[in-house]
Amino acid sequence: MLGAVAVVAIGLCLFLVPWTRRRRRLIPLAVTLAATAATLAVLGWIGRPVSLGVVAFLPVLVGLGSYYPTYFARGARPRTVVVVAAGTAAGFGALLLSPLPFVRDLGSTLALGVAFAVALGWFVYRPGGWAGPDRPADPGATTGTDAPAEPGAGPVARPGRSRLVAVVLAGLVAVGGWATLPFLPLQTSVDALSAGLPAVSDATRVEQILGSGGELAVVLRSTDGKGDVLTPQAWTWMTTAQQSIVRLHGDQARPALSAPTLLSFLGPTPDQEQIRAGVRLLPPYLTGAVLRPDGQVAVLSFGVRLDDLDRLRELTDAITAELPSAPPGFVAEVSGLPAVAVQGYELVSTDRYLAGTAGLVAAALVLGVGLRHRRDALRAALAAVLATGANLFLLWGFGIPLNPLTVALGSLTAAVGCEFTVMTCDAVRTRDPRLRTAVTLAALTSGTGFAVLALSDLALMREFGLLLALSVRLSYLAARVVVRAFPPAHGTAEPARSTPAREKLVGVM
What we know:
disordered C terminus, mainly alpha, 2 domains, elongated
C-alpha cells in the first residue's frame, strides 16, 4: 500500500513540475519501477528472501532510484552519474556493518537497487537511445526552469563574507550535532517501537493475563562434552540458582519451567538414580523443554515483561552477576529472546559513531577515486558532515531518541549529501542549468517518497520516514551552502552531449 502511494506521489511531482516535456516527465518513474522489480527478482533468484520489513521500505528505493534517470535525462555526464551512484551504493553498503539483520538487508537492497537504476537510466537516456537526454537550454533563454546562469551570477559571485558566515554557522550547528551523538538517548520502550502493529494489543492483553510476555532462560551447559546435568551437583546448582533469582527478582522474573520444578516430587536432595528415574517417568515433550536428551544442557525458564529494553538490560546484568558459580565442567549463561534483544540494543548503542561515519567515509573514498575533479569529493564529504551534524542537532534539540533505524540515518544522509554536492558542482562547472534542475527535482521526489512512510501504521516507520525526508532537505541545503562557499571554476568540464529534441516547448504535448 505504501509503495503504491509513493509511486503516485513521486509521479505527481515529476508530472506537475515543468522540468521537461509532458510526455517525457514520467519516464524516470517507469525506469525506477523497472529497477525496483529487477532488484526484487535478483534477490529471489539468488535465494535471498526479502523480509516484509524491507518490502515496507520500498518507497525509499523508489525515491532514491528516481535520481539517476533524472540526471541522465538532464544531460549529466555518464561518468559522473556512475561515480556518484557508486558512492551512494557504498554508503548504503556500510549498513552491512549494522548488528541488526533487518538494517543489513535494507542496506544491501538499496545498494543493488541503485545499481539497477543507473544501468536502466543510462540505457533509456543514452544519446541515440529510446528517450535520449533533454536538449540544452537556448543560450538566450531567460525564463523557466532551464534558464542559464548569467556570467558572474550564482555561487561564484556570492560575497566572500557571506560565504564565510554561512559556512561558520552551518559548521557550528554540525559540530554541535556530532558532539551530542554520544548523549542522544536510545529508544528502549518496546511498546513505543512497535506502536501501531495490530498484534501489539493482543500481546499486551496476553501479558496482562499471564504476567509476562517473554521468556528469559538460564542455561547450564557442559563444556567438555562429558558433563551430565542429571548429577546431584548440577541439580543442586539449578535449585540454588532458581531460588536466588526468585528471591532477588521475583517481581520481574517469574519461574516458568525447569527440571527441579518438574521433578519437585523427588525432594530437595535426590541422588543420581532418583533423578534419572524421575526423568523416565515424565513424557519426552515435558522433559525436552528443560533437558537436552544427551544430558549436556539444562534450561531454567522465567517469564519477563517485554516492555522496556533498558529495564531488561539491568535485569539480565543482575542475574548474570548473581548466578552461583557453575559446577566443574559446566558453564552458565543467560539466554532467550529478551537477552538477544538486550544484546542488540547494546550493540546499536555502542556503535553510534561507526553507524554515523562508515557510510560517509565509504562514499567519500569512492568519489575521491572515481571523480575527475578530486576537490568535488572533499566538497561532498564536507556537505555530508554538515547535513548529518545538522540532523543530529535537530534530534537533540527536539528531544527525539534514536532507534535502531534512525541510528543508520548517518549513512543515508551522507550518501545523499555527497550525491547532491557532486551534481551541483558539475552544474556550476559546466554552466548547464539542466543539472541544477535535476538536483532540485531529485530532492523533491525523494523527499516526497520518504515522507509517504509517515502514513504507516507503525510508529517506527513513521518517524524514520519523516526524519529521512528531513535528511534529504538538509543534504540539499548543505550541498548548496558548500558549493556557494567553495565554488568550482567555470569552464573546466564540457557539458554532456545530447541528442536534438523534436519538441521545442516545455509543457506542450
